[in-house]
Amino acid sequence: MGAFVEQLAQTLAAGLTVGCMYGLLCVGLAFIFGIMRVINFAQGDLMMVGMYLSIFIGGSVLPAAIFGAGTPFVAALLAGPVLFCCGYLLNKYLISRTTGLRAAGDSEGDAHQTQLILTLGVALVLQNAALFLLGSAPVSAATRLSSAAWEIPLGYDEFSAVFLNQARTIDAGLAIAIALCLFAFVRYTRLGKSLRAAAINPEAALYMGIDVTRAHHVAFALGTAIAGVAGGLIVIYYPAQPFVGVEFIIVMYAGVVLGGMGSIVGAFWGGLVIGLVQQLSTVVLPLQLQNAAIFVVFVLILLLRPQGLFGRSVERA
Amino acid sequence: MLRIEGVSAAYGGLKALSDVTLTVEAGQFVAVVGPNGAGKTTLFKTISGTVTPVSGRIVFEGRDISALGPAERPHLGIAHVPEGRKVFGAMTVFENLEMGATTKAGQANWKANLERIYALFPVLAERRAQYAGTLSGGQQQMLAIGRGLASSPKLLMLDEPSMGLAPVVTDAIFERIQQLHREDGLTILLVEQRVAEAIEHCDYGYVLETGRVALSGTVQQLSTDDRVRQAYLGM
Amino acid sequence: MRASPTRPLLIIAGMILGWLALGFVVQNSYYRLLLTLVPIWATFGLSWNIFSGYSGMISFGHAAFFGVGAYGVTLLFVHFGITPWIGLPIATVLGGLTGAVIGYPTFRLRGSYFALAMLAYPLALVYLFDWLGFQEVTLPIDRTDPVWAMQFGDQRIYLAMALGLLAVALVVSLAIERSRFGMSLLAIKQNELAAEAVGVDTQWWKLRAIVVSGALAAAAGGLYAVILLVVTPQSVFGLVVSAQAMILPLFGGAGILWGPVIGAAILVPLSEVLTAELGDLVPGVRGMVYGAAIILVVLLAPEGIFWRLRDLGARRNPAPIEPNAPLPVAAPQRSPARSGTGPLLDVRGIGKTYGGLKAVQDVSFAVAEGEILGIIGPNGAGKTTLFNLLNGLVTPSAGEVWFDGKCITGLKPNRVCRAGIGRTFQVVRTFARMSVLENVVVGAYAAHDSEAAAWEGARAAVGRVGLGAAADRMAGSLTNKELRLLELARALAGRPRLILMDEPLAGLGAGETDEIIALTRALPAEGVTVIIIEHTMSAMVTTVDRFVVLDHGQLLAEGKPESVTRDPRVIEAYLGKKWAATYAAD
Q: Which of A76, A80, B132, C452 is the most buried (most CB within 10 A)?
């Protein structure tokens, strides 16, 4: 009995830490969708770019002496601004040609599909360019914290304990912090509010003098930056390789849809739930089927409750 | 202050305005009335910039603004209170007003404007933390007007403020608009379906029918002209 | 009927034979393999086109069908010893079944949600097959009876088989394109609601399309497995495979059978050759080619190369602008006679509530056969909602609609159309690249079972509205007035007894409205009763027999134009209470 509880507690802890990372990833995706109604297929690959970038920063740019074991974390945070710029330019010169106020599809659906297809193209280019430039060998940014763990005793006997991997726990903490920062930004700052206004009613926002086009660039850039930072944090315990984005993309979508598309708070919870489901399923399912389980959950959500837990109802046949 | 010269425009592929000419002098209260489909909202959209006219031009304070983008025009002093109010439902009343103050003039005069808005519409002060989407129609209309005022405009354009509102509420709204004109000397361009309310206090009125100016004149001239009714009902 | 299929069939035959000849000329075995793969991918692209290209429902997961076919043939051979000659047809059927199983629940989703769900299916199958232990399944070389195992030493036989499959796919696509199957799908792509309103059973056609699509894709997958002799989950269920299904038609031209062929002919050799030459230097070149192709196409030629070239060609030789000839009006067609007496349309206490908002409340009125009824009211009065209720696009919260003595409340729009109620919409959406006649025939399918009769009926309707001279002109070149006439023709082609016209005069200038008004006035004599919503009152007062006035979703007044336009309640609704009270003269 004790062993089962211990295993369950361990699984829950793992689920929560992984879930926080998924949550952050989902927040980035949901933010872009919430503000600009763009489904960014390349979000996972932007995360991949963030992974490699932060390895580079941590390895070659930051002097190891200053931050020591904390170098990868700082590197991840520094990757953010770089990816912000990349995202801004990407949206301004490429993606916005198919979205926003200039989108001239025959119907709303048309413009949507075109944008989805375009981001798929970007994803393919990113993945394969990475393969070419960086090789297919997985790399990670492990620190000594990656193999250190805090031991938290479970009260009921002197031997049972839950081990929290330090690197992952710090990651989770940072993820929560970043998500909170974004939430505060959108809630309380003038720029954040104008982004929300542009999302709620772009026409009215124009009448206020808000530059909706620029708002979209900023939103996309922020979403990209978050993906990049999340990547930098993830690569501490999960190795980077050019196609790693594909592995995470369904997780991201499942989390965002579960939380309700367009809801940032919902997205974080959605990611958290997906993380928990994934870890808990290891108890019952073999390894390969875990990911299949996520897909099944994803499809079930889409079919049974497409508005997710927090979203408003969605158009259906 | 504002001159629309020979503007023709299409909206959604359909011809909405044909060669419309209209003037608003500084400090005037001009009303534009006409039945549904006459092109009133399209007229506002061309002034705001969300619709580009096919021909003609729009001159504001002596400057041809036809080529300016829609997000730039509020910064010149044109405030557009849109049809159907279009408040930011998921934001609070206060935040909506904040959004109105995006312009430089709006930010400079924020405190003074806010006081004025609260004085005109006390209900907005009461409910400043309430989500705009949960307000009643009349309260939303007041918020939309407040939002327009928050930008410290030179010209306030109101698009069918009475739409969907009960007559009692409409009367209150129109009283406030009157007040703004009288006390603050604000230049007002009003578009309305309900004729009497619109032209009651205006300095000059235009009647639009199927995209053209069917007639224009002062209150006295229009109120005794049966052609106004005909413009709406066809016979 | 349309132009005979001889020309496209000849082109297909020529293409296939030319390709086969190429296979004989080329000696290098790698290039021969390449030549063989192009038709297979082209078939895959065609299968995607059949579903997503025509219907507009973008599927991101066609690899599911491809993989089912590949693994189907492989596992049947490896584990059950069934020859691929039988395995391929079985796999094809499996593909079709998969289409039905996936399609039926997923069709409830729209747009991006649909695309994402489709994405998930093959990716889930990757993991499933991994777990099932099928990470890499090889088809063993059978030395005793290679023909039985579909293993040929001579590469050219595979080429012939692939080309055979491509020929089948092309002919199937051609058949679909030219029949009501294709036209119905295109109508769905353009505007699903309008398609329903002219009688297209959207659910049925979408299901049929995905079944055919799945079957073809599976066939392509099966042949692919036989030729390559090895399948892994990633290589047949993976994201790149789904992407390839999409990219080929999108690049070459969606919604037309030549599109995937062009796409395959350009992109497959390009990526394969580049992989062969540069693969060591530049790993991942295939993905980059496809990715770059998508980006370029979306930016420069969003509908694909085929359409882009066609448009450029058309622009250089613009169609001559015909002078506004007087419209010859064809002999009127009598709609089938009615049964029974009583009003043609009887609306009883109909209402619709959205959340707390009563869009339409307790509206009752009757329309006699041969009448022209006008529905008017100030902005937001619920007129369009009322039409949607009559049409079946919206289900009433209360009340009933009786048509010709039968209750039609709650029927799906395409059923309502087949019962005899036609509808035109405010916003006219057409197949811009197809002729007027082709646009109208979609409406004719509701009234005619045979292709020939439908085209006849369409031609008659086109002539009836006066577009006879323009029947073969591209819809994209029509003026606003002509578009409205086309919309009317499409509704009339369904031989309705009652037609609901939603703002037919919107956006037309003074001179242009006359023809439409004249047509409207002539309809009752031909057995078509009319209900019309319009704002242009000056036109309405001389056209309608009676008005029904709505305000705030409720019936305000009813009667002849003379009385309604002077009714103080109506004046109040339109011009405001104060005007009615203070200024209304006499």
A: A76
How much is the average pLDDT of B139-150? 93
Write out residues in chain C with pLDDT < 70, as ranges: 1-3, 314-341, 380, 510, 578-586
Find out whether A236 and A167 touch, Cβ atoms under 8 Å: yes
- Residue of B85, B109, B97, B98 whose CA lies nearest to A191: B98
Find all residues with CB under 8 Å of C295, minimum gap 6, and list them.
A94, A118, A121, A122, A125
Contact residues, chain C, for B210 at CB < 8 Å: 510, 536
Identify whether the C-beta of residue C61 lies closer than 8 Å to the C-beta of residue C120.
yes
Q: Given a cut of 50, is residue A255 above it in pLDDT?
A: yes
What length does chain A have? 317
Q: CA–CA separation, C582 vs C579, rounded Å? A: 5
Nearest by CB: C576 against B18, B36, B194:
B194
Residues C133, C145: Cα–Cα separation, whole Å? 28
The alpha-carbon gap from C194 to the nearest alpha carbon of chain A, in Å, equals: 13
In angstroms, rounded to a whole number, what is the distance separating the alpha carbons of residues C391 and C405? 16
Tally of CA atoms within 13 A in the half-sphere of B90 that contains its CB:
17
At B226, the pLDDT band (50, 70, 90 cuts) reads confident
Q: Whole-number mean pLDDT of chain A?
A: 82
Indicate the range of A42-46, B136-140, C32-36 predicted with least confidence. C32-36
**Interchain CB distance below 8 Å, A97 and C107:** no
The predicted structure's pLDDT at residue C70: 93
- For residue range A71-86, list pLDDT tens digits in order: 788 888 888 999 999 9
Listed range (A297-301, B89-93, C254-258) with the worst mean pLDDT = A297-301
Q: How far does B83 lie from chain A, in Å, by closest CA?
A: 10
Indicate the pTM of the whole model: 0.85
Nearest by CB to B234, from C509, C537, C575: name it: C537
A-chain residues near C287 (CB < 8 A): 124-125, 127-128, 131
Q: What DSSP string runs through C369-393?
A: TT-EEEEE-STTSSHHHHHHHHHTS
Tell if the CB–CB gap between C288 and A124 is shorter than 8 Å. Answer: yes
> In this predicted structure, what is the pLDDT of residue A109?
45
- The answer to whether the CB atoms of B18 and C509 lie below 8 A apart is yes
Q: How far C579 CA sits from the closest chain B CA (Å)?
A: 5
**Which amino acid belongs to residue A266?**
G
The H-or-E segment that residue A265 falls in is helix A264-284
The mean pLDDT value for B103-109 works out to 87
Whether A117 and C239 lie within 8 Å, measured CB to CB: no
Contact (CB<8Å) C283/A114: no
Global ipTM: 0.89
Q: Do A125 and C288 touch (CB under 8 A)?
A: yes
A231-246 pLDDT per residue, tens? 999 988 888 888 888 8
Q: In this structure, what token pair is assigned to residue A110? A: 């048309």
Residue C290 in contact with partner chain A when CB distance is under 8 A? yes
**A265 CB within 8 Å of a chain B CB:** no
